[in-house]
Amino acid sequence: MPCTHSGYFDAGLDSDPELARAIRSELRRQQDGIELIASENIVSRLVLEAQGSVLTNKTVEGRPFARYYGGAKFADEIEALALERARRLFGCRVANVQPHSGSNANAGVYLGLLKLGETILSMSVAAGGHISHGHPATLTGRDYRIAFYGVNRKTELIDLDEIRELALGCRPRMIVAGGSAYTRVIDFAGLRAIADEVGAYLMVDMAHFAGLVATGLYPNPFPHAHVVTTTTYKSLRGARGGMALWNDEALSGKINSGIFPGVQGSVMLHCVAGKAACLGEALRPEFKAYNQAVLDNARALADVLASTGLRVVTGGTDTGLMLVDLAERRITGDIAAAALERAGLAANKNLIPFDTRPPEAPSGLRLSSNAGSTRGFGVPEFQTIGRWIDAVLRRPADEELHAGIREEVRTMCARHPIY
After folding, report:
1. CB neighbourhood size of 2 (10 A)
2. What gap in Å lies between CA 29 and CA 350, rounded to an integer?
3. N or C: less crowded end of the chain, CB within 10 Å?
4. Per-residue pLDDT reduced to its tens digit, 322-365
5. 2 lies in a domain?
């Protein structure tokens, strides 16, 4: 009696029609729609093939060349390649490419460097921070004492004086910079000075601007940060997963053990291969041209939206993402995102600083130029996208309008095909 079914090693996706239908429908959605969600991008064929490879079959635990399981020769080569590329790309001495996500990278750093119950000072979600920086619903929020800083009410920018005052009061063991909806340059040197004053580590989560850092278009957190974390699938255009980077080798044992076995088990080696692939792509000269396009396109989109009367939070952006205040249109972010999706434009609802509305129906919309720039959209396309967004937000219930824009979206996408 065979222990595998017929075609086990040969039958592909078509052998499971229900799954095949859903995956191919998602492919068509990506091909025919415009992705404006800041947490998403479009990977290369190289990354797809690396991440979908036979490495799915291999389990490894521990660091390269010091595994708990045998048969790891090629696994070691792949992870070592990813590590070398990460260090070269960001100019740091040490890296860990094993985290399954950015949140896991953050959790591993916390566990490695902090004692449970110690204080972390981080940006609140309401001001643009990420939930993995201490939101009460997460393990981080439960395992550590969390103090939050926000932004200045008038400028909507980080206020170092406020952070220093908070740090002197709560004496954190770690200060966290970076977030998921803060669009301006962060003063890493100023934050490090505050961290040094209170005896804290400075951790920078650069998930939303790592590509800009890699190409010199945004300030590098090093040498100011003790440790830097990032995802590899947003601005780096790579495999889903995270990384941790640092310079002080004395921290290596703590951070590495915080990640494994601290917060996760075996390595997802196929994802590490995808990371190696995207990091190699990021070392190519054309990656800087891509990131310059990300900036140019984001600013063009922000300018068009502002010209229609919409308020862009902080008045603009220094990254590939922006926040739009919808109060002028008397519409909430959930309704706006749903209407845009009907028009072929994928965006997400988001809190804005000092929002008086709940997260489920906030006052803002978060937009990004990352994925569109990957497709080859330029300033003219993003100006058109801005006009489409304006039209939809003016008439969010007009299904005929949405259908017409959706056809125009398909035409634009057909000029810039993927896969």
Report:
1. 6
2. 23
3. N
4. 999 999 899 999 999 999 999 999 999 999 999 999 999 999 99
5. no
